[in-house]
Amino acid sequence: MNRRTMLVGLMCLIAASCGPSDGAKETEKTSSGTTTADSKATPASQSDAGTPPATTSAPMGQDRTLLTNSLKQIGLAFHNYYDTRMHFPNDITAADRTPLLSWRVAILPFITEKELYEQFKLDEPWDSPANKPLIAKMPKIYAFGNEVGKSKTVLRGFSASGQALESGKNIDLFDFKDGTSNTILIAETESPVEWTKPDSLESAARLPNRLAVLFADGSVKLVHLGSEFRKALTIAGGEIINYADLLGETSDAIKVPATKMQPVAPLPNTSPILPPSKLGPPSTALTPPIPGPKPPTTLRLPGPPTTNTK
User: Fold this and answer.
1) Mapping DSSP to helix (H, G, I), strand (E, B) and coil, where does residue 83 land?
2) Mind listing the pLDDT tens digit for each residue in 191-240?
3) Residue 93 is inside which H or E element, if any?
4) How far apart are CA 235 and CA 174, in angstroms?
5) Looking at residue 87, what DSSP letter applies?
6) How far apart are CA 103 and CA 165, in angstroms?
7) Is pTM beyond 0.90 here?
8) What angle do CA 105, 194, 236 make, to 5 degrees?
9) How far apart are CA 215 and CA 231, in angstroms?
10) Which of 24, 26, 34, 138 qualifies as a FRET site for 206, CA 20 to 30 Å off?
11) What are the boundaries of each domain within the chain?
12) How confident is the model over 58-67, as pLDDT tens digits?
């Protein structure tokens, strides 16, 4: 019995001294390798899932700032154009007043794009074989939002009859009977067009409820689309614009509160006023005359020197 116990203990010692079998090693290696690969792949997969896709459009706040700055530069270009040509820019037309190219092409020399301007055939339409390749060279000043890097712009002007960019008519500053600060030139739209194409922004074009506009005096405002907006499109319509509605504000927000008039206290009566019956007789003393200007003194000039004839 003791001999059997000793034999079993010896077998256990031999088994303990031996390492795991090859199959066990392969299983452990495979399991370890799989775990390591998974642990490395998991962070990469999580990283890929957490990274937002790249976007080409700028954030709304930044895009709004770029839009405002571009409209101000365009307003400055309009006035520099006026100083040179003595009228506001409009669409480039043929001899029969047929629109050929947009006003956006006409102001190119005044937005540091003179080289591009000289490449256009000004007596040919915007989509002629000579002018059509230039559509792809739209300046950055006209590109915003989804149209960045493309050939269309959301900046459009009003060129109907009686408006500031009326096609075929040279508008002078004196034609703005309503005032340049009350007349809209250009607005942002939701209907982009090719930047070289002459177009008139009709009422059918999609306009946002709140939009940035350029006035004829060069100012840029964020206005509300409504009846007051339509009043600001004419140069001599004689309309009275309610700026509270145009800017989208309530009338109470800009109304000056009325103040109740307080009674004014009378001044203290330090010297009583006497009735005419108690006044003395009027003074009969003569007032000394005011001396007048002195008569000019006569100057005697010396005569010619006498010569001795003896």
Assistant:
1) helix
2) 889 999 998 776 546 788 889 999 999 999 999 888 889 899 999 999 88
3) strand 92-93
4) 10
5) S
6) 8
7) no
8) 60
9) 13
10) 138
11) 60-251
12) 334 557 788 9
